[in-house]
Design goal:
Length: 492
């Protein structure tokens, strides 16, 4: 440092040089003003700008797929919008055609650039897809044996002078355009957990098109109940501002309970087709920890239906009613917990927090549906409003429900001689819609089909009479046993 300073000119020389250059510039400017007319000055300056153009400075916005644990709405909107600008002759794209989709689907396969413009402002989008640990030894998940995750993002480049216009006008227009495209091309999806999901990646859910054709018009359900369900769904969808005003998460819970074959799955499909909401089918037996459940929730989209079927059979949830049997079960469960692997930590508390705790507010316009064949087995904590807001009893077939089935399957709109007898038998017996629908599918001929249903109901009547006799005899034996236990307990 001392050597370099020794060779530096003195400060007085630097100031003299600066003064000389400044004086020369001022002299040149004075000469131009005195010798050249104003039009000539402007022409000369314009020529200099063309010969030595000033390179404009640019700004770049980075739009990542995820914002921490949450999905980035702007990334999804940008992907939807830019995919509408893709051309089949573009370099390296994913091209898919799903069953029943009206058109081909183009998606980004690797890094890709797309130009765009807004109000005369040139814009350049660049899609980037990179794997974590790409240049290092990949860390493999013990279950999936795949790289931990991938990072996908967009880069939007524009001139600095247009920054305000891009943020205040262009970005909102992309969001609005993406919403229109999604509404026009909406195909309801059915999502299921990936075979070996890595909860740190974005590929937790696999999806297919929902092919279930069920609608409220085809459901064999009482008309009044269908009307109340549709009104409740419509009310939920339009009350975004209401939920925010009262300080509640914009979600709704439904409990569908009743015997097997009464149409619980068909009702879920009808709800999805009615609202155009995707379905996420959550199999709780694949969830090992409460933290995994939270991550799954964060990777579900808004405007979706999360379905947990057979909640009473899917997992072993502890009984918290405080009975001696419950206490014993809790002690046994605690002892068993000591011998479980440390990563098996899925609890009822975690499920409750998943439904209406703080994590449940990480998303909007979501519906949670539980199904069960035995409502009495569920913990009361699951049933309260805020978790399961509307309880829908899926009952056995009624005469009105049968008329709808006859209309749907056989095209019967008015009276038929066999209908009164069939309806009378339906009133007397517990018959599920699935059982009758199966009989209606056996023949194309109306008379043959109705006769088959009539024979089925009559045979069902004989079976029920035999079962009633057997059950009555068993009830006597059970009653005696109960009396004996009660007397024995009273001795203590």
């Amino acid at each position: 440092m001392a050597v370099s300073m020794a060779h530096m000119p003195p400060a007085s020389s630097i100031f003299s040089m600066y003064a000389s250059i400044s004086a020369s510039i001022m002299l040149l400017q004075t000469m131009m003003n005195q010798l050249l007319p104003l039009p000539a000055q402007r022409f000369l300056l314009s020529l200099l700008r063309r010969l030595f153009p000033r390179r404009p400075s640019h700004s770049t916005l980075l739009i990542e797929e995820r914002d921490g644990l949450s999905s980035n709405e702007l990334f999804s909107a940008a992907e939807t919008y830019l995919c509408s600008l893709l051309r089949p002759d573009s370099h390296r794209l994913k091209l898919t055609k799903r069953p029943n989709d009206p058109s081909l689907s183009l998606r980004f396969a690797s890094s890709h650039s797309i130009p765009d413009s807004h109000r005369g402002i040139p814009l350049l989008w660049r899609f980037v897809n990179e794997e974590h640990n790409k240049h290092n030894k990949p860390h493999l998940d013990e279950r999936s044996h795949h790289p931990d995750s991938e990072k996908r993002y967009f880069e939007l480049t524009f001139t600095k002078e247009s920054r305000d216009t891009v943020l205040e006008s262009y970005i909102p227009s992309v969001l609005a355009r993406a919403k229109v495209i999604k509404d026009q091309n909406k195909v309801v999806k059915l999502h299921t957990l990936a075979g070996a999901p890595s909860y740190s990646s974005s590929s937790v859910w696999d999806s297919v098109n929902l092919e279930h054709p069920s609608t409220f018009d085809t459901l064999a359900m009482e008309a009044d109940l269908k009307k109340r369900i549709k009104e409740d769904l419509d009310r939920f969808v339009r009350r975004k501002d209401f939920y925010r005003r009262v300080g509640r998460a914009w979600k709704r819970g439904y409990l569908l309970y009743g015997p097997p074959g009464t149409g619980k799955s068909s009702l879920i499909a009808a709800m999805a087709n009615y609202l155009k909401f995707d379905i996420y089918d959550l199999e709780l037996t694949n969830v090992r920890r409460d933290s995994d459940l939270r991550k799954l929730l964060l990777r579900t989209a808004n405007r979706s239906i999360l379905v947990i079927e057979d909640i009473d059979c899917t997992v072993d949830l502890p009984d918290r009613k405080g009975s001696p049997a419950a206490v014993a079960a809790a002690v046994e469960g605690a002892n068993a917990h000591l011998h479980r692997p440390r990563d098996t930590q899925f609890t009822l508390s975690g499920l409750l927090n998943f439904i209406d705790g703080l994590w449940s507010s990480c998303g909007d316009e979501r519906i949670i549906v539980f199904t069960t064949n035995n409502k009495g087995k569920l913990d009361p904590a699951l049933l309260r409003p805020g978790r399961m807001d509307m309880h829908i009893h899926m009952s056995y077939l009624t005469p009105d429900g049968f008329r709808l089935l006859a209309s749907t399957y056989l095209g019967i709109q008015g009276h038929h001689p066999s209908l009164p007898e069939i309806e009378n038998l339906i009133k007397m017996k517990n018959i599920t819609p699935a059982e009758v629908a199966e009989e209606l599918m056996k023949f194309d001929d109306v008379d043959l089909s109705l006769n088959e249903v009539l024979n089925f109901l009559k045979s069902k009547t004989n079976e029920d009479e035999d079962d009633t006799k057997t059950i009555s005899e068993k009830d006597v034996e059970v009653g005696v046993a109960k009396d004996q236990v009660t007397a024995h307990d009273s001795d203590f």
